[in-house]
Design a protein that fits this description.
Blueprint (H helix, E strand, L loop, with lengths): L1 E10 L7 E11 L4 E5 L6 H9 L6 E6 L2 E2 L5 H4 L3 E4 L13 H9 L13 H12 L18 H13 L5 E5 L7 H18 L3 E5 L2 H6 L3 E6 L2 E7 H5 L3 H12 L6 H5 L1
């Protein structure tokens, strides 16, 4: 479903602020695979996701989604293939519009827009059914402005919107980092349920080592713009935080694990 071949990205090339963010990164992701990516600040995780989504053009290499070469496609064209949930719960939704209106925008994504009533009774019934699966009571608040929701409710809604049209690739970019632990746990559970129910191909970026181990069928660790660990199957299921840290030190050549990983 996703094929990344030898991509590199340098910011501020030729200046004193030059930064090699991605260093010859390659990745193959099968249909239905759920990948978690972990790494410290500056490891290249978010830059990689932005490169896949088309936010940043790559300097070299290629990116393919479901057999389509999207390397030179702009972000808005890649949106037809990709669903995204961001770290900030305020992103991904329209705060001044109702819950039903936000869902309608997501549901009609890519469709022809004509002159007709905004949301039919049939659509509203469908949205209530979908919202009920979140178990947050939002099915009874269809017309509530999204800006009035809590961060967790808004992130759950964004997650539902991102999966409504069954994207070829779902990107979860540290989507629980701004939430309290209890809410983050619920949003992670919802993420897993929606990915499994819709058989989605997904990538989740996280700083939390326990979440990286507990979720997904495959784990990749990045360091200094490179992928240094790639674990799946029984090997991943047997991982512990201690064993992952040991693998990090062995693979990176560094005896100092990133503080953000340890704190998470």
């Amino acid at each position: 479903m996703l094929s990344i071949q030898h991509i590199s990205k340098t910011f501020n090339a030729g200046t004193v602020n030059e930064k090699l963010a991605l260093n010859d990164v390659s990745l193959e992701l099968a249909s239905g695979e759920f990948l978690t990516i972990i790494g410290g600040n500056g490891a290249g995780k978010s830059v990689l996701m932005s490169a896949i989504a088309g936010v940043y053009p790559v300097d070299s290499g290629s990116i393919w989604i479901d057999g389509v070469d999207v390397t030179r496609q702009p972000e808005y064209r890649r949106a037809a293939y990709i669903g995204r949930v961001f770290q900030d719960p305020m992103m991904g939704t329209a705060a001044n519009m109702g819950i039903d209106e936000n869902l309608a925008l997501a549901y009609r994504r890519g469709q022809h827009r004509g002159l007709r009533w905004g949301i039919s009774h049939k659509e509203q019934a469908r949205y209530r059914e979908l919202l009920a699966t979140l178990e947050l009571g939002l099915e009874d608040r269809l017309t509530t402005k999204v800006g009035l929701l809590s961060g967790g409710q808004r992130q759950a809604l964004t997650l539902l919107m991102a999966t409504l049209q069954h994207p070829r690739l779902l990107i979860l970019d540290e989507h629980t980092a701004a939430l309290d632990p209890r809410t983050a746990k619920r949003v992670l559970q919802l993420s897993r349920e929606l990915i499994e129910a819709n058989n989605l191909t997904a990538i989740m970026i996280t700083h939390n080592m326990r979440d990286a181990i507990a979720f997904g069928s495959r784990l990749v660790m990045m360091y200094d713009g490179r992928m240094i660990i790639d674990i799946s199957g029984e090997e991943k299921r047997a991982l512990t935080v201690a064993s992952l840290l040991a693998r990090f030190e062995q693979s990176s050549g560094s005896d100092e694990a990133d503080d953000t990983l340890l704190l998470a």
